[in-house]
Every structure is written in structure tokens, then in C-alpha cells.
Design a protein that fits this description.
Ptyr_pPase, Ptyr_pPase_sf, alpha/beta, Arsenate reductase ArsC, arsenical resistance, 4-stranded parallel beta sheet
Length: 172
Amino acid sequence: MHPCRVLFICTGNSARSILSEATLDHLGQGRFVAYSAGSKPTGRVNPLALEALVTASIPIEGLSSKSWDRFVASDAPPLDIVVTVCDSAASEPCPVLFGDFVRTHWGLADPAAATGDPAAISEAFRDAHRLIMHRILALLDLPVETMSREALKQALDRIGELGDGDSAEVAA
């Protein structure tokens, strides 16, 4: 499993999955290849998601809101891990994708749904990206290349339970 191919999916593919894709691609440095998609893509990346990435010095070139249809086509890249990032606690429907990969859920409130003044909305994007960064760093600490599917699934599920201040020790 090298590089490990990870798809982040949510409904709109405008913020959370985009933040996750760009962060893992940047920090994974070729060890991971990240993708993102949505079940009902908005067709545009939220500018505040791009701002959060730029603030973190993460490249934004090539990011786009796209349908998960491209990942079920016959010429789709093979996937090792699929992560849903919708917020099931908010009764937001999570997309389901079928295939031979490890599935996990890293629920995260949608910063694009934040309300209030512009500063509060920007803070929601920064908070979401901080949590994503925390979880991505925990993923990078895993020896995914040598883990069994079962151990990887358990470790990924534990990462999805991490809050921003939680310890990131999740290795099996």
C-alpha cells in the first residue's frame, strides 16, 4: 500500500473534504495521495476553505468541487481508505461508496453552515481545519504500510473520535 490512496467524501465537497484532501496531500509528501468528492457537489470550493489552507501554507492549486462519480467509474484510481467527514450528529446524510477499501467516519460540523458575523464564520473554518490537521497528523503517525486491514480500521475509527485537544496516540 504505497502510496496510500485516501478519498475524503461529504455531501457538497466544498469545505471539509477539500480541507482534508489538501492537508493530507501536502503533509503526506508522496506517502499518501489524497482525493475528495461529494455526493451532491456544490461545483465550487468555498473561498473560506481556501483561505484557511493558504493561512496554513498549504497549496490550493488544482482543488475543485467534484462528484464521487469519478471514483466509481471503471478508470477510477484504486482507493485504500475512504473517509466520510459529514456531521452525522447533525443528522446530515453521509454518502456511501462501495468498494474494496477500509471505510471510516470522521464526523465534523460543516463550517460552510456557520452563521454570524464574518469573523465568526472565518473562525468556524479555522476550527474545522485545526481538527482536520489534528486527525491528519494522527493518520500520518500510523504505519499504514504494515497494518492489517482490521488494525487500520480500528485506528482510523479512533482518529475519527479525536477532538481538537485529544491525544493523538491511536496506533494499534
